[in-house]
Amino acid sequence: MSEDFNMSMRKFLKQVGVTSQQAIEQAMRDAGDTAGKTFEAKMVLTIDGVDLEHVVTGKIEGQS
C-alpha cells in the first residue's frame, strides 16, 4: 500500500479513536452512577464504495 494511503488510514483511525472515547465518556457521565454495571458495546465500520462491514464487540465497565 502507498504511503499516502497508509497516512490517510492512520489519520482516520486516530480520529475514530479520539472521538469515540469522548462520546463514550460523555454517555457514561450522562448515565449517572454506572458502578458495578457492564455494558455491551459494538462498533461498526463501513466504507462506501468498498464491500466492507467490520464489526468489533466488547464490554465496557461502568463507573460511579
Task: Outline the secondary-structure elements.
Elements: H1 3-31, E1 38-46, E2 53-61
**Coarse morphology:** elongated
Determine the fraction of residues in helical runs and give it as a percent range.
40-55%
Strand order of the largest sheet: 1-2
How many distinct helices?
1
The topology string of helices and strands comes to HEE
Give the total of domains: 1
Alpha carbon gap, first and last residue: 45 Å
What about the largest sheet? 2 strands, antiparallel
Please mark out the parts with pLDDT under 50 across 5 or more consecutive residues, or reply none.
none
> How much strand content do the residues show?
25-35%
How many strands in all?
A: 2
Structure, described:
With 64 residues, the protein is of the alpha+beta class. It has one domain (3-61). The protein is 45% helix and 28% strand. The protein has one helix at residues 3-31, and strands at residues 38-46, 53-61. A hairpin with a 6-residue loop joins strand 1 (38-46) and strand 2 (53-61). The longest helix has 29 residues, at 3-31. The model has no long low-confidence stretch (mean pLDDT 96). Pfam families: DUF6494.
Which key features would you list for this structure?
single chain, 64 residues, two-stranded antiparallel ribbon, elongated, DUF6494
In brief:
The chain is an alpha+beta fold and 64 residues long. It is built from one helix and two strands; from the N terminus they run H-E-E.
